Amino acid sequence: QVQLVESGGGSVQAGDSLRLSCAASGRAFNGYAMGWFRQAPGKEREFVAMIRWSGTSTYYSDSVKGRFAVSVDTAKNMVYLQMNGLKPEDTAVYYCAAGKYYSGLYYGSPGQYQDWGQGTQVTVSS
Question: What tens digit of pLDDT does each residue of 33-82 get?
């Protein structure tokens, strides 16, 4: 079965960097969109970034644009989220997700993704 396993979370200071990893297995992900979402306590899950498995397109939420970068290594079946200039408001559980890509995909909606990882905690203190 499909497995998405996130790693790389931790506790850091404001301004620090972290790189999250998502190990994807269980299917061929060609034609899939790989998303990163986050959920803070008491808040809804929100979109962070998306990359097509081919690596040809990337999208970011306004709150992370210019600070975060998503990438994919298809040879290793890995998806990464490089997070720079972290802020306390970035504190959340971060999830990796996979969904079939199609033209017009609303990549910002969690409902568009069929498979999810268990999440990794990122805590940023001021």
Answer: 999 999 999 999 999 999 999 998 999 999 999 999 999 999 999 999 99
pLDDT digits (tens, 9 = 90+) for 31-47: 999 999 999 999 999 99
Distances (CA, A) of 103 to 31, 49, 97, 109: 11, 17, 18, 15
How many residues are listed for the chain in this entry? 126
Tokens 């803070």: give the residue: 40
Tokens describing residue 2: 């499909």
| SS3 track for 2-17 | CEEEEECCEEEECCCC
Helix (H/G/I), strand (E/B), else coil: 121: strand
